Amino acid sequence: MIAIIDYGVGNLFSLKCSLSAAGADAIVTGDPEIIRSADKLILPGVGAFGDAAALLRRDGLDKLVIEEAHRGKPLLGICLGMQLLFDYSTEYGRHGGLGLIPGCVRPVRDYIPEGYKIPHIGWNALRFPEGQPVSPLFRYIREGDCVYFVHSFCGVECGENVIALAEYGTLLTAAAAKGSVYGVQFHPEKSGGVGLRILKAFCEEGEIC
Amino acid sequence: MITKRIIPCLDVKDGRVVKGVNFLGLADVSSPVKLARFYSNCGADELVFYDITASAEGRALFTDILTEVASTIFIPLTVGGGINTLEDFDRVLKCGADKVSVNSGALRDPSLIAGAAKKYGDQCVVLSVDAKRVDGQFRVFAKGGRLDTGLDALEWIQSGVANGAGEIVLNSIDTDGVKNGFDMEMLEAVCSVVDVPIIASGGAGCAEHFKTLFHSLPKVDAGLAASIFHFGEVSIPALKRELSEDGIPMRCEEARYVQD
């Protein structure tokens, strides 16, 4: 069973439905017991980093997620949920993240040339970093497949933890991973068949090699 | 690079998809859920649903349909029609809409745009404008294109973006239903005054019109159409392939990953 962590941000209806379509048994929950007993966790998120981090901390779910991830439970952060996995963000002041993937979160504006619109919104192609094996998260898709992005901040200084990039005047971090902790900046639940295949790969994480 | 989007629009009345020609003469096309699935599998990059029902029963039916679409179709969904208050935003977002399009509601209460942008983010608020040439000016029309508001379309769009509209759908009443191509002059005028994504609507009759649109106006992000897709006059996979071969960035892989 996959627990979609509900900490009061955003609508999780599409995400839950997309996981069902990917063949997973998913539950939307904020209950620590259910989160502990789940096989895998998904950390969603929309809105501002500081607000989301505070909500996660308010319920003590930050410590629980870190604990479960350290025990090796597969975790997938989506959009702001991905950004929360990094060390910190500079969105409206400096806010600490969960520190599960090295890196930090900064405005896309600081990295792209003039003339590119903010937010980075729409379908963009995934590129895999050269010289490293393709992440298991992408085993059912191909390089160049498009996914759907909506964001104004992005993960940077992620080093070798970057597993996918997207070209937008510069190369933005589209996905990052450390061990069985994954983060995707795009919305797999809104990325059609490609997104479902990414979710399916995550759902099978640890089950096949 | 962000791809250009091809967007079929589904006008829904009493649970069925309809399409007007010049906003008149409604003809039944198909079931919204089936059509949505068909388009998603064809590689449509987004779907727009307009609720053109007036009755409370029709509205309830629309939200049921929307919920069903959102639970089976996993591409961005924009919903419009009958959006007059923040409660309306809430109602359709809860059903799984990603973006909400406002038109007459914003004309009646311009503060709706700012209120919604503050609550749900700019990216969620789409300002849809029906415009027509009157006395040498692009004029905003309300009530499905029947009422001249007297407002200048360019000024109205600029103020909408200033208030937080994250995207513009520009529907030219002059070219709508005529299938002679998009209203390039009107679109160019809008492109020159705002910096948010612009969706062109009204007038597409063949693939060539989309080519002209994206080549001539690089600031236009998407082309929207209804009847030419509904009646199969233009096939979305063939259109996207043709545009892609013509050097326009397109998302073309969806055919490989068709949902069962």
What can be said about this structure in brief?
The complex is a heterodimer of chains A (209) and B (260). Chain A has helices spanning 13-21, 32-37, 49-58, 61-70, 80-83, 192-203; strands at residues 2-5, 26-29, 40-43, 75-78, 88-89, 95-96, 104-107, 120-125, 146-151, 153-156, 162-167, 171-178, 181-184. With 209 residues, chain A is an alpha/beta fold.
End-to-end distance of chain A, in Å? 19 Å
Distance between the termini of chain B: 29 Å
CATH superfamily of chain A: Class I glutamine amidotransferase (GATase) domain
Radius of gyration of chain B: 17 Å
Mean of all residue-level pLDDT scores of chain A: 94
User: CATH superfamily name of chain B?
Assistant: Aldolase class I
Which architecture name of chain B does CATH use?
Alpha-Beta Barrel
- For the record, the count of structural domains of chain B works out to 1
Q: And the CATH topology of chain A? A: Rossmann fold
Instruction: Let me know the largest β-sheet of chain A.
Output: 7 strands, mixed
Give a count of the beta strands of chain B, DSSP E runs of length 2 or more.
Answer: 12
Annotated CATH topology of chain B? TIM Barrel
How much is the average pLDDT of chain B? 91
How would the global form of chain B be characterised?
Answer: globular
Strand share of the residues of chain B? 25-35%
* Dominant shape of chain A: globular
**Largest beta sheet: strand ordering of chain A:** 2-1-3-4-13-12-11
Judged by helices, strands and strand pairing, the structural class of chain B is alpha/beta
